[in-house]
Amino acid sequence: MTDTGNTRLADGEAQAPRPSRLHRLMRYIPLIAPVLLWAVPCGVLLYGGQHWPLPVTAVGTALFALGLVTLPLAMMRGHGRRQQDRAAIVGDTLLGGSWILFTWSVLLGVLLRLALTVAGVGESQDRARIVTWAVLGVTAVLLGWGYTEARRIPRVRELDVELPRLGAGLDGLRVALITDTHYGPLDRARWSERVCETVNTLEADLVCHTGDIADGTAERRRAQALPLGTVQATRARVYVTGNHEYYSEAQGWVDLMDELGWEPLRNRHLLLERGGDTLVVAGVDDVTAESSGLAGHRAHLAGALDGADPDLPVLLLAHQPKFVDRAAADGIDLQLSGHTHGGQIWPFHYLVRIDQPAVAGLSRHGARTLLYTSRGTGFWGPPFRVFAPSEITLLVLRSPHAPASS
Hints:
Pfam families: Metallophos. It comes from Streptomyces adustus. InterPro entries: Calcineurin-like_PHP, Metallo-depent_PP-like, Metallophosphoesterase_sf. This is Metallophosphoesterase. This protein is of the alpha/beta class. It has 2 domains: about 1-150, no CATH class; about 155-400, Metallo-dependent phosphatases (Purple Acid Phosphatase, chain A, domain 2), CATH 3.60.21. Helices cover about 40% and strands about 15% of the residues. Helix 3 (about 30-45) crosses helix 5 and helix 5 packs antiparallel against helix 6 (about 125-150). The chain is elongated and about 80 Å long. It starts with a helix and ends in an 8-residue tail after the last strand.
């Protein structure tokens, strides 16, 4: 019988299902995507019936080929083992620029050309050249506007959030949220100072940072992060790790935030009391923490709530919105998250939505749980934000038990 069992086990292992065609195709996306990002615009702008003079076609093709070669090389030097900031800036800029150019080459290359054809505008060559100039014009405008949006001080987004279990004594509690500051190759120390100055004007009781402080180690990005030490809150400043901390020696960031006076809520909670009522403020490590191999790091909601009175309302900090499934199962009242950047560069939010249950704003999950997803305070990688503005968020918590104001 033992021999038969072993034989069946071996047979079972041998007959394990092979990866699907989709999974096999996914392996080639890192190779296919960069080619498409440059080949599609090249085809639309140069070979779509425009009949440009040969020197124009040759120079244009050479520029697209140069971009195709430079992008991966710059990304590898900038974000690989060498961590060269100048190369990272070049690679990130090319990545964002090529995405915008690709998007509008596809949209205008199809829709505008179709509209011109239906309207009977000119010959095929005339329509092709109109499309070319339209794509170049829209791309140039969006690159300039997107860069300005990415580098500006975020606007404050304020909203009231009613929590049914919140006691009347906590009505009006002001919670400021910053997240995804992503200090990186572009030095934003002054930007960081102004963000913190803006947060201080909000007179918040609680200030939260839900992770992705920087791209790079705490030692390397320390100067940009130091202004976080000037942030003021009447009750507490709390922080949880994001996935990018786990690319850059996460414990160093935890230690630095602690040094700057923030409380890292690593699977633990604190109690915020006012007017005889109490709010549990809990935090968990990012969902990628355990796979990082860093000892003691993992997302552990039970540990975060250990010892808390289950009848008290809970405000949970979790970097990624998709943690809300676990939060809703435990009856968390409000989860604050970032991670998505609101898509950052339109229409990337459609891809983000595949991985996350929410991209931006307030949403309900389950019978009790609310999730607020910030579009982020900074930007990741490409220094552009297109139709996804950054934000500093002020949430004013409301209690249904508070007496109506006169």
